[in-house]
Design goal:
By secondary structure, the protein is an alpha+beta fold. The protein has one domain. The chain is built from 4 helices and 4 strands. The chain has a 4-stranded antiparallel sheet with strand order 2-1-3-4, covered by helices on one side.
């Protein structure tokens, strides 16, 4: 008798776990994608912070040997190339704009046409190299919490120019 009752109970419970999973899975996957998105935000921010620090370290030495144009190398193009090389391929995705502060005087460099040869100052100047970046979010339900559906952030490094 008890064997018959347990078989009937098993028949009634057959699809319950599938229905429970179908109800819980969307919430579970949403939380998983939000965690991945936030993890990516942290990784991108830290990677760009590393890249701007490496670019600033290169800038304070006064070198220009990284400029891809070997015939007429320019310091600002070499610094930008160092930032690109250190950004692990994220440079073009975050589409940075530059804010350079030299001894307290700030200039904004939104595009390459506004750069000049003295962009990173002279020896003994204190240079603050700041990049303003945006990162597109992946999870649609997170996007309303960020203006424009993307994460806008700034990374900066401050150093004193060496005697070059």
């Amino acid at each position: 008798m008890t064997l018959r009752l347990s078989k009937r109970a098993d028949r009634r419970q057959r699809g319950v776990s599938t229905i429970e999973f179908a109800l819980i899975a969307p919430v579970l996957f949403l939380l998983l994608f939000i965690a991945v998105d936030l993890g990516l935000l942290l990784w991108v921010n830290l990677t760009m912070q590393y890249a701007v620090r490496e670019g600033a370290r290169y800038a304070v030495t006064g070198q220009s040997n990284l400029d891809p144009n070997s015939s007429s190398q320019q310091r600002y193009l070499a610094v930008i190339q160092e930032i690109k090389d250190s950004s692990m391929g994220l440079y073009n995705i975050v589409n940075p704009s530059y804010v350079i502060t030299i001894n307290g005087t700030t200039q904004s460099y939104a595009n390459q046409s506004s750069y000049n040869g003295n962009m990173f100052g002279n020896p003994d100047d204190i240079v603050v190299l700041q990049l303003n970046c945006t990162w597109p979010l992946l999870t649609p339900l997170v996007q309303p919490f960020f203006p424009g559906g993307s994460y806008a952030f700034s990374v900066a490094a401050t150093m004193r120019n060496e005697d070059f």
